[in-house]
Amino acid sequence: MLVLQAVEPGSPVTELLLTNDSMMITFILGKLQQHDVTFVQRNDATGAAGLSGIQKMTAALRMMAYGTLADSLDEYLKIGRSTAVESLQSFCRGVISIFEAEYLRKPNEIDTARLLHVGNHRGFPGMLGSLDCMHWQWDKCPTAYHGFFSGRSGKPTIVLEAVASYDLWIWHAFFGMPGSFNDINVLDQSHLFDDLSAGRAPPAHFVVNGSQYSMGYYLADGIYPKWATLVQTISQPQGRKKQHFERMQEACRKDVERAFGILQARWAIVRGPARFWNEVDLGYIMKTCVILHNMIIEDQRDHDASDEITELLSSNPIQVSRDITPALVDFFKNNCRIRSNEAHHSLRNDLIEHLWARNGDEE
């Protein structure tokens, strides 16, 4: 009942809080109360009851879901501006500490097998997702940092690099680079391929057009480098085969852009200009929005389709192995494999032929 009084029906917050017959709010609040005493109701020196955990959590969620100003919560929730801001900060840190390992994890063996299976079904064997960047305008950027954080828009922004899969689950989120950086600069700083370079990532074995490969790849736009782990579209394609590949690649690459759109629609705080001064706080807010986004995606997932994929994987398993090779020589060798221009063109040419043989004649 407290949830329904604090949040409007049909809102993004209600979508999260009423998940699984209103149990999600109780679950998250219980975890937060175990993690941080901020969300435990206490009495003051006079014995009067203080703010409840549900009030503080609702204040944080309203600021995230609607982009509500902290000042506007006083009359509605009886909570002051400073307490609302503190609640948001504590909520974000608590959610990240408790749920990051589960809802912002890197794909494990089972996840990789599922992504490979779906990628093969969509015509891209070996595809693990789509890669792109999103800019979040920083309204309160200190004047001294304006030039460093301002990009093409002329306004200070902070970049989120993300990888999203077919079901809009965000598997990788790297946030904090200034808006003056382009996608290549952000990729050079991110940790997307760290596990693959260190030999900790599960290799993805697949066959395309008769050629065998052992590293999965991400679909990306034309600005990204020509690496073996990135498959770009073709600028000004010549011939029906390349034109067909361009259409198929761009259609699948929209997964990450759709994920960005849903993330911003669900959490208005990352759609509008950021009003916090501290860059660290913005990082916590963005990561929390991604984690809650994945929690909602998991709840809305088609369990019948998931069961079907699991059954197909058990009947026709995809070979995924883990080989830990911490030696420095192997690290450099893996980096060379990742950045191989020759392997990039070979993979893309094989995909062009594979897609054309698969359904090119239907055009």
* 3D shape: elongated
What series of H and E elements makes up the topology? HHHHHHHEHEEHHEEEEHHHHH
Low-confidence runs of at least 5 consecutive residues? 1-21, 320-325
Number of helices: 15
Question: What is the CA-CA span between the terminal residues?
Answer: 55 Å
Topology, number of strands: 7
Work out the strand percent: 5-15%
Please estimate the helix content: 40-55%
Radius of gyration: 23 Å
- Biggest sheet layout: 5 strands, mixed
Structural class: alpha/beta
- Tell me, rounded to a whole number, the average pLDDT: 85
Spatial order of strands in the largest sheet = 3-2-1-6-7
Quick structural summary:
The chain has 363 residues and is α/β, with parallel strands linked by helices.
What would you note in describing this structure?
The chain is an alpha/beta fold. The protein is built from 15 helices and seven strands. α11 packs across α15 (341-359). It starts with a helix and ends with a helix. Residues 1-21 and 320-325 have low confidence and may be disordered.
